[in-house]
Structures are given as structure tokens and as C-alpha cells.
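[Archive record]
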Amino acid sequence: MSSRLDSWLLAKCRTLVIVVHCWVSVESSKTNITIGALFPMGGTWDAPGILPGVEMALEHINANDDILPDYTLQMEWKNSECDAGVGMKSFFELLYEEPVKIMLLGAACSVVSQPVAATAQHWNLVQISYASASDALSNKERYTYFFRTYPPDSAVNAPRIEVFKQYGWTKVSTIHQTEELFSFSTNLLITDLERHGIELITSEIVDSDSIPTHQLSNIKAKDGRIIVVNMYEDQARILFCEAYKLGMYGPKYMYFILGWYIHEWWLDTSNIDCTTEQLIEVIELVVGMEGLQLDPGNVTTVSGMTPSEYLTSYHQYLNGTNPSGQVYASYGYDSMWSIALSLHSAAQQLTASGSGIKIEDFDYDNTHGLRDIFMDHLRETNFHGVSGPISFDDNGDRFGITKIEQLRIDPDDGELRDVTLALYYPQGSLVWLNADEKLLFRGDDVPLDSAQTVIVKQNISLPVYVVCSALASLGVLLALGFLYFNVTYRKRKLIKLSSPKMNNVIAFGCVICYVSVFLFGVDGALVDPEGLLIVCRARIWSLCLGFTLAFGGLFSKTWRVYVIFTNATKKKRIIRDYHLFITILILLSIDVVILTVWMAVDPPQRVIRNLTIEYDLEGDDVIKIPQLECCQSVKYSPYIWLGLIYSVKMLLLLYGARLAWETRKVTIPELNDSKFIGLSIYNVTTLCIIGVPISAVLGEQVTVAYCLVASFILFCTTITLLLVFFPKIISLRSSPPDEALRITTIVNHKSIPTGNNKVEPGPSTSNESEKIAEMTNTILSLKTALRSKDEEISAMRKRVDQLTKMEVTDEISSENRKSVADIEDSESNRE
């Protein structure tokens, strides 16, 4: 039994020796090709955990006979200390030390990768990084031969925007550190936000190691709730400490940070004056995003292992150690596989071409053009690595998967931990790992991106509009009633001498002014925008033309009296009605010209004005924006056109005041309205002086402003109507009809005996006595009437003498002239 065991062991040893001998023979026949590499060991970022992942990838590649079967891939590396100066020194050491480096791996930090990539291209070295995230490295004109398996910082912009959309956030604020790394990605984010219709409230910049009190206060003042933070973790601690002091945390706020901060970065409070508990109170439920380090699926990768098997092998490779930077080891592992696969494809191409050139013939002068071949095959790289699918875009950036995490308190131990909630794939799809477990919020509801903005339309109160419209309707009825009265009694002397046609014009103008009250009360609550635009222009025309008709008719009447009674010449001047209509037509033409030019050059437009904002952030968290819908000219100042209209109307009022003053002593009531014109001018002028400024001041209080304007129009128009027509109604009611007076006068005048007539004596009967008594009474009444007429004639003659004895025969009706003749005949008979 023992001899059999010895024989079996001897056979096994011989087999092992043969296998080792064969392996050594095969390895010795392979060509060595060397990769240069830079790793961050100490310094600003200490990540020694990346190197074991790369070394493990080298072992797996060299052990795979299907990848570079004729070559042994080797690596020489230097420490960059995550410092640009040290990194450049290490790069040149790699460059000038033998052997020739066929490609360059690294660096980890962007501050090292940028100068190295800008320099390495002059030695025709293709470079691939496993952790550099700066978007500046995407500039192919500057970094021509640079690739990376770690997604750039801007890669998180698309998933951020997708999260914003899913939660209905349309207003975002940003704050970033003054580093090129963060400036590039923030600018790209702002561009993407604009393209997706998301409003940027403000974008703040923070100097390194400074306290962002002003920046955070500005975000708070502008009501920023959804805040994107782009900065290193040490600066983030300062920011969140200040946010705690400003009260910028809780149910109203949501922060988005970068997901590549060091593990438990919030525990270091050495550079802030907040406790860890205070910091956690702010950053709990903060959302972080970064490239996926390990594919969560169970897919077999290019190495033949699943991601979970890789992770097991990696921890075994560490042999119980726990170096920092382990999360980036998967990127280093996939980067080395990317190099190996591209070199393998290049070697196959060269062999197939029969040129005799091999990949090991590469030199820094690119003598054989191998650099471009390496570039082409690296661009075509497409495989499934342990960190997910690996492929590159035209800028050398990886199409990677982004994971979305949230800092949450573990209910079991009360510790704050990153919880991965969703994955964002390059195709643009956001997949929640658990449909029932998405983002958590401090409040019961999803926080608002800002206080709710409520547009409050400033419309005229409907009851007020109804009341003013009812009063305007009564005014229209009053004007029509006066118009009916004027037409019905137009042949009566009292009405006939007061220019009834002009009275009709006045009444019609007042009706139009009343109609403008209806138009001024119409707003967006009653008509659509197009209808409102028509109403806006109609109200200007109606009030302007109505005023001209009403007061123009009133003033033209007074002008006729003024011309007749102030004519210093003895030549009789006749002013007929058509002269008055021409005067009104001229005034209307002035209005029409001004309004037509206004409407053609700068017509009033529908304008939406936001008034003083009302905040209620503590109560209903609502911002009320009163919005006023008005009509005004936008090309030029509306005050130019209104000032021109007001100037014309003021000149009309002043001219009317002068006419009223000049004719104040005319004592014929039927001909003169000077007293009433003066009262009308006083009312209109006073109310305009008071009302126009008050209306401008109360422009935002539309109901009050409308009440004021409507009241002034109603009051002025109604007072004018009453002053013009009401005295005539009173006078007409208190005097006998003209025809009855004329007939009585004529009959009594013919019954009176003239100078040569004698009364024939008749029988002395009672009838004769009654006739004598009746005649006696008639004579007495006629004497009284003659005495009254004598006084009136004397006054008229005296006035005529004063006014150069000019006759007013063209203005006095035929009945009036006959009455005067009868009175003069009676006077002759009496004498």
C-alpha cells in the first residue's frame, strides 16, 4: 500500500515538473510589452487600493491564451501623489527609463492627467485613465490621445435631469467650487437644463476653503430649493455647515452632490465649526451620483468572471488588507483589459496585413504609425467589464452606467450610509432597483422646487362693474329723454332760440361718453385677448369723440352768441347752424387725425404686468403674483399720446371758459348758456386735475381705479346734461305756450279802439254794461302788458345802443318780431 502511494506521488511530481517546464518554455517564447502607469499613493488623494485591481487584471490577461497569445503584458508604475508636479516628474521618469512604454495607464487625479495627457501626445503615447473625471479632458483638440473608463463629471447631468423630471422639479440652483474640474461640468449642466426647459434660478461660485455665506443666502433669497453641489468633500463640509446655520435644510430643501466622495466623508469636522450630528442633520437624504463601480448583474465579463466573482477574487488578492480607493479598482481592472484588447486587435491587424510590423515596434517617434492603429482599435473597444459595458465616444469618454445613491440613516444601527436606489443607462433610461423604494424626503410630500406661484388676475369687481354699468344705462336713458324733449319742443321759442340742433349734438356726445363707462370696465375676465384689444382701442375713441361732441356743441353755441354780441361793426353778421356744425367737424377732425396716427404708429397692445409679489412662505408656501392685464402702447411711451389728447381737450376747455366769460352779461336766457358752461368747465377741469393723477397712482388697484374713472365720467356727463337741458324744462313748464300767447295778444289788440274810431252808443242794457266792463278790464290788462313791454323795449334799446345798435333779427323768430311790432303799435296807439 505504501509502495503504491509512493509510485502515485512520484508520477504526480513528474507530471508537475513537465507542466512547469512547458509553461516556462512557452513564457520564454513570448515577447514582453510594457505599459507605463501612474497611481496615487499618498498626497491629496491616497488610493492604493487601485493598484491591486490593475495587477490582478495583468495576471488574468497573461493567463488567457486568447488574449495577446504571443506577448506578455507588463507594467511599470510610478507614484503621482495626486499632484501635478510630482505626476509630471514621474511621467518623464517612465518615459526615459527602459523599456519603451507602449501605452500609458493613469493618472487617477484630473490635475495630473491633464498636464500628462497634454505632454504625452508629443511622444505619441495613447493614454487611458481609470479615475479622472474632469470634463476638460473631453477636449480632443487639447488631449488628442486620451481615453478613460471612468465617466466624466458631466455624465451625471443626464441622470440628474431625469430625476428632476420624474419629480416635477423645474427650477434648480447650482453652487460649485472655483476649480476647472467643477466649472466645466456645471457649465454643461446649465446648458442641459436650458435644453430641457428647466429654469436655473441662480448659479453660485465658491472659492476654495471659503465660507459660502453670501452664496447660500442668495440662493435662499431667490427661493432655491433644489440645489446641485459640485465641489470636493472638504469644501462640501464647509457648505453644509453653513447651510445648517442658515436653516437651509429640512423638508423644503433637496441637495444633489457628487458620489465619489471618500467613505464617511462627513465624519471629519476638523475644518468646520459644526458637530458631526449637525452635519448629518443637513446631509441626511442628500442624493449622490457617480459612475457605477460594479455591475449589479450576474453577467459573465470579458475576463470570464461575474462581477461578484471578481469582487471575491479582489478581496482575496488583498490578502486581508483594506486599502483606500478600493471602489476604483474595478475601473483600473477594466482599463487594463481595454488596453489588452485593443493591442490584441492591433496585433491581429498587423499580422493579417503581412507588413512585418509588430506592436512591439512602437517607438515615441511613431515611426511605423502604430499610434493611429492603437487609437482606432481603442475607439472600437466594446466589451462587458466588471464595472459594466465599456465603450468610448468620439471624445474618448466612456458610455457608462451611473448609479443614484441617497444618504440614509440605517434603522438597525443608526449609522448614515449610502443606499443605491437606481441606475441610469447610456441609452437614457432610469431604472429604479426597487419600484417601491425611490427617493425619501423629510416631509410627507415631494418637496417643491420653489414656493407655489399663483397668478392672481387683477380683474374689476363684477358687482362694481354692474353698478357702474347700471348708472351709465340710466345716464343713457336720461340723455335720450332730453333728446326726445329737445326734438318734441324744438318749435317752441324757448327751445328754438337755444339752437336745438346743437342740443341734439350735445345729448348724442353724452350718450357716447356714457358708453365709454361700459368699455372701461371690460377686462380679460369678460372677453378673450383679441376682444380685449378691440375694446381697449374702442374706449379711447369713444371717450375722446364723445367729449368733443358734448363740449364742442356747447362751446359752439356760446361762440355764436359771442360773435353776435361782440361784433364791433355795424355790419350785420349772420351765424347759421351749418357754421356751428363746421366748427364741431373741425374739432372732430383734430381728434380723428391724432387717434389715427396713434393707432397706425403705436397702437395700444395687450400687456401683462406682474405687480408686487405677495409672499406666504411660512403658511401655505405660496407666492402670489398679482397680474394686471392692460392696454398700452409699447413702442413709445403711452404718456406721449395721452398728453397730446389731454392738451387738445384742455385747450378746448380754456377756449370755452373764455367764451363763457365774454358772454356772461348777455341777458337773454334763451340765447346764453355761459353760466352753465362755466359750471361744466369747472367740474370737468377739477375732476381731471384730481382724477388723472389718482388713477395713475391707483393703476394696480383696478377696481378702485375703474370706480374713480367711471364716477368722473358719470358725474361730468350728467351735470353737463342737467345744466344744458333742465333749466329749459323748468322755464318751459312755467311759461304759456307760444301760440296761445300770440293768439290772445292779437285778439285783444284788435278789440282796442284806435285813435279815430268811435264807440257807437247803443241801448242801455245789461249786455252793454257787461261789454263796457269787459273792455275796461281788457284795456287795463293791456296797459299793464304795455308797461312791461315798455321796460323791456327800453332795456333792449339801451343794450342795442351800447352794442353799436346792431339788430339780432336773424336770431329772433318771426313770432318774436311780430310780438315786438304789436308792442310798438300798441305803444303808438297809447301815445
